[in-house]
Design a protein that fits this description.
The chain is built from 5 helices and 6 strands; from the N terminus they run E-E-E-H-E-H-H-E-H-E-H. By secondary structure, it is an alpha+beta fold. Strands 1-2-3-6 form a 4-stranded antiparallel β-sheet, sandwiched between helices. A hairpin with a 5-residue loop joins strand 2 and strand 3 (about 25-35).
Length: about 150
């Protein structure tokens, strides 16, 4: 599962995304959500990671790898120590919900490896509230998903 966040300063909003894929890279489910803009990009990324964790649980996954391009967020998720960062409380709450899950791991990836989630976060600008696609992503992102798999 990949996550990402995007900032839309001019409209004081942020986009959150989560893309769940199977081992072949095919989309199982994806989410794009528009939220009020918090005061830092790290908080946007933390909110995106937390939303991705909640989304995976909402569709019944109890085993997944969470990939994101925010090194600070991934380090916080991996750490067993309490985080005193501005976004630590967001991730502590999300991680607490995974304690009964089977196998959850967290991985930092480069921006290039996160292109589907990044573009889905940018797509949130056109979403009212949130949108979910089951076994799919928005049609205009199909080429990016194919290139990412390919």
């Amino acid at each position: 599962m990949n996550f990402d966040g995007a900032i839309f300063k001019e409209i004081h909003k942020a986009g959150l995304s989560g893309v769940i894929r199977n081992s072949l890279g095919q989309s199982i489910a994806s989410l794009s959500e528009l939220v009020n803009l918090p005061y830092s990009s790290d908080i946007v990324e933390a909110m995106a990671a937390a939303r991705a964790i909640y989304f995976a649980q909402e569709i019944g996954l109890n085993s997944f790898i969470l990939d994101g391009d925010s090194e600070a967020v991934i380090k916080c998720l991996i750490s067993d120590d309490d985080s005193f960062s501005s976004f630590g409380h967001i991730l502590v709450a999300a991680k607490a919900t995974t304690e009964t899950s089977c196998c959850i791991s967290f991985s930092h990836i480069r921006r290039l490896g996160n292109s589907v989630a990044h573009n889905l976060a940018k797509h949130a600008r056109h979403v009212r509230g949130f949108s979910v696609w089951m076994e799919d992503i928005p049609p205009h992102l199909q080429a990016i998903l194919s290139a990412d798999n390919g």
